[in-house]
């Protein structure tokens, strides 16, 4: 029988939220696909953390498809807090860029408020465990997942972005959430169209209702804002789409020589590392980039026109009007939020959104308000034109742009000042003084004890435990009761009948076969044999001085660091700047999704990662006559945490072949499998084990009709005919071959799924076309090659 396949979207479907995660189960082997979060690392709907807590204990492997926070954001948390210590698979660019994305997000959060969900060390640890794969590299799971093979394919959208193919036996699951069918400046189009007829296709429908506008341009509004003499803010991600945007603007600045007039910069915490890694990943980019690099040895990501900044002070130091690419897209955190707060009141400034806007974020809210006000203003102006004379309006468009207010909560880390700073430093100095005083007293007592007690502990005469020496005291005991520690012997209750004496034990001399062992150090030239005690004191003093020096250095470093605190302030922002939205998402729109799904032609379709309207639109199309014409039971739209059983209803059995039969069968390669035709009868070989064997076929049963395997592509057939010197043309969906000299006509037509007809008179052309047509398929011979 076929493998049991279950699929569960954990979160990110049906709500418009971009953070996603899925659980795929194949015969009890659980694969977590993506583990995303948002850049705020909050969970207001209580959907992310509870879902991960529920499934993490049973996860056997993790697959990551993109480097953005919406796909890797929760991975360090699951590793550090939930114990997700399983192999994780992704491409090299996702490893590098995903790690940088988490660095930037974590540092941005720590600059605003205390953050303890995970640390930078957790990020490093989880990415150190990643198994890196190349595109189209087959990786076979082992142990519990034996028989399962995972293969990454290019998805477009960003460096290393992946469409995953998971296969076991006849089950072939394709997971494609964000993909791009268009070539970009540094990326090829997705390879999803090369994967044909899988048993299941899990596809994202986040852009199903969108239609790509080829006239969408981000250059015109940017140039207009710069000519007004004001700045342009482009909120973007850390290491994904920012690479394409930076390359596009660098080429624009070079082509139009804007470098002398305007500044162009990228600002976030790991900006330098982002483009340093991009420069080293030419093999993961488009063919055009690779060919240009091979011919000219010029790396396109040198980016001579782009300034790399890591702080707002560096941005402010740049001259003239400037274009700033800053993280993050949501405007909820990072340098993009800080710059928006600073520039939003300027009516000449421009905020250009170049990525999808997630609901319940500041970016989505301000764009929605701006769009509504602009639509209302346009409607009012159209009504006024019919009632008033058409007086010329000022050229400055800010006279007609509406402004609005928005409430935000500003969180930041500020340095202590005034009385708070003085109080903090006084408390720190007092703490250091007490610590130094205690260390000196402990050292002094230790020297006194070691000076009179150089022997082992003395056992009590009454058989009790030996007295505890100073060296064996714990930190807490020595700190708490330092004054109560006796000079030697510890807290020993001496028997009044005995005379109090200093503890002393006769040293035991060591002997060998020749007598007492001689200490050769006593005979060394220039050495003082009687200076052992003094040497120990000197060494102890040196260690004490070194420790005290290290403490002073540490104290000096801590005093140089300005102490800080976290503050929070409710602010009303007056938003008067201009906004623009350009379609630089790098994902396929609704029309492209339909074409790609039709090309892939899955047997079952699972729709995820969209709003309810988008998911329902893709379901309706897939079941319609203009779509895939799938049955309603073959298209799934699961809700979050809803597990669906998508096991294929196929009659597939495991059989045991005898070695002689296996050797004599003529195997033919069809896709990823070896196929052969065998005629025989089945019998149960062992009732207890339930193994099924195959008996040798009888001689009278030999022979079978010719079986053709494969999918005929009419353009490929036309090309094959042309290579043989036979000219053909398409007419009415048929491929027509006509010989003008003899008048022979042969017509090849695809009637339906898996059926092809060839019509014509029996002539030389007919048999030639038939032979070439047969070559387009894989034929299965009989067991003996008949």
Automatic annotation (TrEMBL):
Its main location: nucleus. Keywords: mRNA processing, Nucleus, RNA-binding. Residues 438-447 have a biased composition (Basic residues). GO terms for molecular function: RNA binding. CDD domains: CPSF2-like_MBL-fold. PANTHER family: CLEAVAGE AND POLYADENYLATION SPECIFICITY FACTOR SUBUNIT 2. This is Cleavage and polyadenylation specificity factor subunit 2.
